[in-house]
Design a protein that fits this description.
Order of helices and strands: EHEEHEEEHEEEEEHHE
Helix content: 25-40%
Largest sheet: 9 strands, mixed
Distance between the termini: 24 Å
Number of helices: 5
Structural class: alpha/beta
Length: about 240
Amino acid sequence: MKNNKSVLIQDLGTLDYAEAWAYQEQLFKAIVQTKIDNRRNSANTATENHLLFVRHPHVYTLGKSGDPDNLLIDEQKLASIGAQFFKINRGGDITYHGPGQIVGYPILDLENFFTDIHKYLRLLEEMIILTLADYGIKAERSKGETGVWLDVGTPFARKICAMGVRASRWVTMHGFALNVNTDLGYFDHMIPCGIRGKSVTSMRVELKSQEIDEHKVSQRLLHHFEQLFQAEIEFP
């Protein structure tokens, strides 16, 4: 199979979660099918790689191993706050997506880069950490807890970016959610990532800013993604 490090970048704007999930599945299945066909036919067709940026309306998603009790409200309350709820096929527990948050879905054939899921997650975290550093925010990892945190090991530990991925045949989907201008009140309706006693934060809160340009944050994320994955960035 040809090695292909080109990654097609798409900004989907604001999109309903179900639509974005279906689109991810479409791209994911196409890459997997190419790999199956290559093996079946002894072919050498290059597989595609994608990185989707998107903003979702208010939604809570629960990973396949997550505890439904970590959502603290019922269907009636969900409707009253204008939010949806989905059980999905990624790893991790419960998380929230909504306006003011940058969500990234890398749909990569890791055989084009490296075959190591642990490394993949650490590079996604590093991309976030480097982007936050560009804004003067010191972020880090928390041992045993995927995602990006501030003030780890202190009573003030708080999460600024959640992550959850799925991988099959070395093809990835789902990804990360970085709180930029997010309304943090929506996190009060759940136990974030199933971890009790730790809070969440956003870039806006940390920088005591009125509003942060989300497009510029996306550009910094893309820059660090390109460098860390040694990718060749393409646009539609």
